[in-house]
């Protein structure tokens, strides 16, 4: 069996699971949202991280049905938590460039929203800068997604071929400062300056900024001092299975 076929089969056998990494309001410490991150719960190999199968899934195009499954699962879960009376929380789902360039993307997402009864204002799609290379198509597709009421976030911000003008053109709601900048903010003054500048720029444009990969209190304090309002990282929580996140939310409710 090729890896490609194994992934296809695993999708049929329901072997994928979605983990949720909390996103934190830096001032209150509250969980304000989560990022949905897929894992493969392999019957003999155990939990396989996405780095081991996402690249192949991207290459072969299986990322399209897999990505749709993740989106549907995350929306269903969000709705279940709302029905259980938990405070409304956003969920961010990574969109692959393969999904982005499918002509029926908007219809597919619309259908998933309808089927799961997900409130679109709590759904965020994470796109990367490289996906927006074809500007005219990106404007059209992102515009339609915004019309559905969905929020948009640029993932790994600062690492792609970004044209800052896109930020205005695409009506982006949030940008996620790439982990590679956050990692060295305490030791590399260039990285500290870059992070501070991204936060200030986002603020001026009326876009939210979230820092990812926050692992230490020093990093958190620096981000707070620069008026970054939202963080995600191991300092607070690893990506968690749904049940574990639910327990956490129940405790803090
Ligand atoms: O979850 P982390 O544990 O290891 O994820 C590694 C990489 O896999 C990240 O770049 C993340 O964006 C990507 N990834 C995780 N889940 C998904 C998914 O559902 N769809 C896509 N396209 N990428 C994902
Ligand atoms: O941006 P992407 O979608 O690539 O981001 C999600 C990835 O980041 C996942 O692999 C997740 O496990 C990882 N991640 C989340 N928080 C941290 C952190 O604090 N440190 C490191 N090293 N990785 C993190
Ligand atoms: Mn992401
Ligand atoms: Na990222």
TrEMBL record:
This is EAL domain-containing protein. It comes from the Bacteria. One of its GO terms (biological process) is regulation of DNA-templated transcription. The lineage of its organism: Bacteria, Bacillati, Bacillota, Bacilli, Bacillales. Residues 1-253 form the EAL domain.
């Amino acid at each position: 069996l090729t890896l490609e076929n194994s992934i296809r089969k695993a999708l049929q056998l329901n072997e994928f699971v979605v983990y949720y990494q909390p996103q934190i309001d830096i001032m209150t410490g509250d969980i304000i949202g989560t990022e949905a991150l897929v894992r493969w719960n392999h019957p003999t190999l155990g939990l396989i991280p996405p780095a081991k199968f996402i690249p192949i899934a991207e290459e072969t195009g299986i990322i399209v049905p897999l990505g749709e499954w993740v989106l549907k699962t995350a929306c269903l879960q969000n709705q279940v938590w709302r029905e259980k009376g938990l405070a409304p929380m956003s969920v961010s789902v990574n969109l692959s460039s393969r999904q982005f360039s499918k002509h029926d993307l908007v219809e597919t997402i619309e259908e998933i929203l309808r089927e799961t009864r997900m409130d679109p204002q709590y759904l965020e799609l994470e796109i990367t800068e490289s996906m927006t290379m074809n500007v005219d198509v990106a404007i059209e597709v992102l515009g339609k997604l915004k019309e559905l009421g969905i929020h948009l976030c640029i993932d790994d911000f600062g690492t792609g071929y970004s044209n800052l003008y896109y930020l205005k053109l695409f009506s982006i709601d949030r940008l996620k400062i790439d982990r590679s900048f956050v990692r060295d903010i305490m030791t590399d003054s260039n990285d500290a300056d870059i992070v501070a500048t991204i936060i200030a720029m986002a603020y001026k444009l009326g876009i939210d900024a979230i820092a990812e990969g926050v692992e230490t209190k020093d990093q958190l304090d620096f981000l707070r001092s620069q008026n970054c309002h939202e963080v995600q990282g191991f300092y607070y929580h690893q990506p968690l299975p749904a049940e574990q996140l639910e327990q956490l939310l129940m405790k803090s409710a």
